[in-house]
Amino acid sequence: MNFLGFRKLVYEKSKTRMLGFVALAQHGVLNEPGELLDLGFADSDGSAQAVIDNRDIGVGIKIRLHKKSIGENSRAALRLGIKAGEATGTPMMVHVGDTAIGMDEIADTLRPGDIITHCYTPKKPSIIDDKGKLLPLVRKAKERGVIFDVGHAGGHFDFALVERAMGEGIIPDVISSDLHGLSLEKIIASCTVDAARVVGWQDRIGSLEVGREADIAVLQIVNEPTKLRDSVGGEKTHAQRIAAKWTVRAGEVFQGRG
Predict the structure, then answer these.
(1) R_g of the chain computed on alpha carbons
(2) Nearest CA among 68, 77, 58 for reference residue 34
(3) Best CA proximity match to 246, nearest among 234, 238, 254, 236
(4) Alpha-carbon distance 87 to 72, whole Å?
(5) How far apart are CA 171 and CA 73, in angstroms?
(6) Which of 50, 141, 203, 242 has minimal Cβ neighbours within 10 Å of its Cβ?
(7) Where are the domains of the chain?
(8) How many CB atoms lie within 10 A of CB 91?
(9) Angle CA(59)–CA(65)–CA(70) in degrees, nearest 5?
(10) Please, what is the angle between helix 74-88 and helix 44-53, to 10°?
């Protein structure tokens, strides 16, 4: 009923394309209490069936691994999430930051194509050790095809940590919210064709081709000093910003605020 409610009340009324990862917890995301503090609420079969029954929306399985949501159930939840991902042939996305187990163990558990979101979170434990070095198992995960997603989210971005991680080769595969410091070409690719490839939709969305729906973002590079802020009080000033001029969704044009 939870996913059906989303389809009827949100998805079918929205003009924006919506794709989603289905929560392993049968009641979705909760803050008080956390959704998987009681592992009995983890529903591997149910979350897999929700994806199978809703292939036009569901593109994978989602687990929040921070302690407030999951307590000491991280390892069992990861196993159940992978089971659901294998049953549906889709990736599992894990939310990190303030986790009960280390990022090295999390990264080592994931399959190629699974996704670490909030990958640059400053919340411990992070992908960088106390000496400022990238964790070896995180590097190996990147090399074998685990996907790294920025997921800024207002609380998971630290300029200093990003610079160290990118200096050691952890360039994000996907940008699901804003990021600073990449070329425009890489930013566009990470928000479009690369993101579509991660969820297996590259034959439908993410690029402009004859016969596809007209989903287009018209952007403008504005030459004006812009102050950028991370999640821990850091600031940088950039000489340019990207402004959204128009959005075209299935041929319908929406004016941007630029």
Answers:
(1) 19
(2) 68
(3) 254
(4) 25
(5) 30
(6) 203
(7) 2-198, 216-255
(8) 23
(9) 115
(10) 30
d(CA 79, CA 110): 10
The model's pTM: 0.90
The DSSP secondary structure of 198-227, one letter per residue, reads HTT-TTTSSS--TTS---EEEEEEE-S-EE
On whether the CB atoms of residues 131 and 110 are closer than 8 A, the answer is no
Measure the CA–CA gap between 236 and 227, rounded to whole angstroms. 6
H or E element at residue 53? helix 44-53
Q: What count of Cα atoms within 13 Å lies in the side-chain half-sphere of residue 89?
A: 4
Query: How many helices (H) and strands (E) are present in the chain, helices listed first?
Result: 9, 10
255 bridge partner residues? 246
The CATH architecture annotation of domain 2-198 reads: Alpha-Beta Barrel (3.20)
Residues 104, 137: Cα–Cα separation, whole Å? 5
Contact 144, 136 (CB under 8 A): no
Q: Which residues contact 134 (CB under 8 A, 6 or more apart)?
A: 127, 128, 164, 165, 168, 169, 170
Q: Characterize 111-149 residue by residue with b for buried, 16 or more Cβ atoms within 10 angstroms of its Cβ, and e for exposed.
A: eebbbbbbbbbbbebbbbeeeeebbebbbebbeeebbbb
Tokens of 85: 């991902």
Q: How do 216-222 and 241-249 pair as beta strands?
A: antiparallel
Q: Which pLDDT tens digit goes with each residue over 119-165?
A: 999 998 999 998 889 999 999 999 999 999 998 877 788 888 999 99
